[in-house]
Write a structure and sequence with these properties.
The protein is about 30% helix and about 25% strand. The longest helix is centred in the first third of the chain and has 28 residues. The chain folds into 2 domains: about 270 residues, Immunoglobulin-like (Sandwich); about 190 residues, von Willebrand factor, type A domain (Rossmann fold), CATH 3.40.50. The strands form 4 sheets. It has a 6-stranded mixed sheet, with helices on both faces. A hairpin with a 6-residue loop joins strand 17 and strand 18. It is α+β, with helices and mostly antiparallel strands. Helix 4 packs parallel to helix 9, helix 12 runs antiparallel to helix 13 and helix 13 packs antiparallel against helix 15.
C-alpha cells in the first residue's frame, strides 16, 4: 500500500513538473522575454527553445515577433546581418507538399533576402537606399524598407585559391534521391565551377566518420566524382565528429589569404555526439575562431533539424540555405556562387537610428534571432554575420509617427564590419532624407518587400497583421513587372496563390 502511495505521489510530482515546464515554454513562446539595449529581444533568449513539429517530425527554434519600441526608450535598433535564405526555400517546400506551415519556420528576413533587389552599386563595400510609405496592411502606420547591397567581386579575389571541405551526412535519414542523391548532384555542379587548382576534401559521417580525401585538386574531377557517387546512406548521425574532422581537414590544407570553407550537407539530425542547440552553439563558436568559414546546406524533410543548422550558421561564421530541388542547388552553388562563397564583409553589425522628433515607435520585422545589444554593436570583438559578393538585403520596419509629424528624415543607418582578409575594422553610414511617397509611386523593390512582409504576417497569423490578407498580397504582386520578368518573384506569386486556395495556415490558439 505504501509503495502504491509513493508511485501516486511520483506521478503527481511528474505531472506538476510537466505543467510548470509547459507554462515556462508557453511564456517564452508568447514573447515574455528580457529587454536589452536597443529595445529588442536578446538572441540568447531564443537559444535552446527548439519547437518540435510532431505532425512533420521537424524541429525549429521558437521565433517571437518583435514588439513596437518607443523611440524615447531606445531610438536605435541593433541587429546582425547575414545572407541566410533557408527559411524561404523551406517554406516553398512546405507549400508545394501541402504541409501545414509551422509559424516558427517563418523567418521574414530570410524570406526577404532570398530575392535580389535593384539597389545601385556605389562601388564601395556597401550601398543603401530607403523608402517610406503608408503600411499596406495598416493605414495608421508606415512601412520603411532599407535596401543594402555589397560590392560585386568574384571568388577569385582570394588570389591564393580556395580550400573547400565537403562535409556530407551519409546517415540513414539521408537516404533517398531528394536527400543524399540531391547532395551528390549539388556538389558535382559546384565542382564544375571551381578552378582546377582549388583544394577539395571530402568528409562523411554516419555512426562513424571518414575522411574520403584531403586537399585534392578540383581539376581531378573524375576521381572526385567517383568518390561522391559511391556514397551510400546508413547508420546513425555523428555530426559532431564529422564537424571536427571537417575543420581538421580545412586546417590541414589551410591557404593563408585564401578562401577556406566547410560546406556541410545534412538534414541536421545529430543523434550521436552533440545533440542540443546549446552544446552545438558553444562547439561551433570555437571553430569559428580558426579562420574557416561555414556554409550550411539543409536537405530533406521529416527528421529535419532547422534549429541545429540555423545555430551552426549563425554561430560559425556561416550562411544557411535549404536545398529542396536541383534548381535551388544551381541557384545557390552556381548562379550565386560568389554571393554564397565569397565573403566581402565579416562580422556585419547594423544600427538603424530613428528621429525622435518624428517617430513615436518602431517595430523591426524579422531578424528576431539576430538582434544584438548596443554594447555588442560597439564592441569590435563581437561575432556577427557575414555577407558575400553582390548580396542584396532588405531590412523592414513598421513605424508609428508622432501626432502631427511629417514623415521626413525618419532614420539613418550605420554598419560596422571587418575586411575578411585584413581584419581591419570599417564603418559605413548614411542618412535617409526625402524617402516618403505614396505607395503607388514607390519603386517595385519597396512594394515587393511589402508584399513579402504582408504574406509573412498572414501565414504567421501575426498579432500585428491588422488588415493584412492574401488577396491584398496577390493584388500587389499582380501590379509588379518583376513578377513577370524575374523567375523567383514569379514563383513567389504562385506560392501565395497556392496558399490562398488551401488550408495550410496554422491556427492560432
Amino acid at each position: 500500500m505504501k509503495k502504491t502511495g509513493l508511485i501516486i505521489k511520483k506521478i503527481k510530482l511528474s505531472a506538476i513538473l510537466l505543467c510548470v515546464s509547459f507554462a515556462v515554454f508557453a511564456a517564452c513562446s508568447t514573447g515574455n522575454n528580457a529587454w536589452v539595449g536597443g529595445g529588442l529581444y536578446a538572441p540568447d533568449a531564443l537559444e535552446g527553445l527548439g519547437f518540435y513539429d510532431r505532425l512533420n517530425d521537424e524541429t525549429y527554434s521558437v521565433i517571437n515577433e518583435l514588439p513596437f519600441v518607443k523611440t524615447e526608450d531606445a531610438a536605435e535598433s541593433y541587429f546582425s546581418m547575414d545572407s541566410h535564405t533557408a527559411a524561404y526555400s523551406n517554406l516553398r517546400r512546405m507549400i508545394n507538399n501541402g504541409q501545414v506551415i509551422n509559424r516558427n519556420a517563418i523567418r521574414t528576413d530570410e524570406m526577404l533576402n532570398y530575392f535580389s533587389y535593384s539597389i545601385p552599386d556605389s562601388g564601395e563595400t556597401f550601398s543603401s537606399v530607403a523608402k517610406l510609405t503608408v503600411a499596406p496592411w495598416n493605414s495608421e502606420n508606415y512601412f520603411l524598407s532599407v535596401g543594402v547591397r555589397t560590392r560585386k567581386t568574384t571568388i577569385e579575389r582570394y588570389s591564393q585559391g580556395n580550400n573547400f571541405v565537403f562535409l556530407i551526412d551519409v546517415s540513414g535519414s539521408m537516404s533517398g534521391e531528394n536527400r543524399l542523391g540531391l547532395v551528390k548532384k549539388s556538389f558535382l555542379m559546384l565542382l564544375d565551377n571551381l578552378n582546377e587548382t582549388d583544394k577539395i576534401s571530402i568528409v562523411t559521417y554516419a555512426n562513424g566518420v571518414r575522411t574520403i580525401c584531403s586537399g585534392v585538386n578540383a581539376g581531378n574531377r573524375s576521381a572526385l566524382e567517383k568518390k561522391i557517387n559511391a556514397l551510400v546512406a546508413s547508420g546513425g548521425t555523428n555530426g559532431a565528429g564529422g564537424i571536427q574532422a571537417a575543420y581538421a581537414a580545412a586546417e590541414r590544407n589551410f591557404i593563408p589569404g585564401g578562401n577556406n570553407r566547410v560546406l556541410i550537407a545534412t538534414d541536421g539530425d545529430f543523434n550521436v555526439g552533440l545533440s542540443s542547440v546549446d552544446e552545438l552553439k558553444e562547439f561551433i563558436q570555437e571553430k569559428a575562431e580558426t579562420g574557416v568559414y561555414l556554409t550550411c546546406l539543409g536537405y530533406g524533410m521529416g527528421n529535419y533539424r532547422d534549429d541545429m543548422l540555423e545555430t551552426l550558421a549563425r554561430n560559425g561564421n556561416g550562411n544557411f540555405a535549404y536545398i529542396d530541388s536541383l534548381s535551388e542547388a544551381k541557384k545557390v552553388l552556381v548562379d550565386e556562387m560568389d554571393n554564397a562563397l565569397c565573403v566581402v564583409a565579416k562580422d556585419v553589425k547594423s544600427e538603424i537610428t530613428f528621429n525622435e522628433d518624428v517617430v513615436d515607435s518602431y517595430r523591426l520585422i524579422g531578424y528576431e534571432n539576430k538582434t544584438i545589444t548596443k554594447e555588442d554593436f560597439e564592441n569590435e570583438l563581437t561575432d556577427a554575420g557575414e555577407l558575400g559578393s553582390n548580396t542584396t538585403a532588405m531590412v523592414c520596419y513598421e513605424i508609428k509617427l508622432k501626432q502631427g509629424a511629417y514623415p521626413e528624415s525618419v532614420a539613418s543607418i550605420r554598419i560596422k564590419y571587418k575586411d575578411p582578409l585584413t581584419e581591419e575594422n570599417l564603418e559605413y553610414s548614411k542618412s535617409f532624407v526625402g524617402i516618403y511617397s505614396d505607395i503607388a509611386q514607390a519603386g517595385e523593390d519597396h512594394r515587393f518587400a511589402a508584399a513579402v512582409v504582408e504574406f509573412s504576417l498572414v501565414i504567421r497569423n501575426s498579432a500585428y497583421m491588422a488588415n493584412a490578407s492574401l488577396r491584398n498580397v496577390i493584388e500587389t504582386l499582380d501590379s509588379l513587372g518583376c513578377c513577370s520578368t524575374n523567375e523567383y518573384k514569379a514563383e513567389f506569386k504562385e506560392l501565395v496563390v497556392k496558399v490562398s486556395k488551401s488550408d495550410l495556415i496554422e491556427k492560432r490558439e
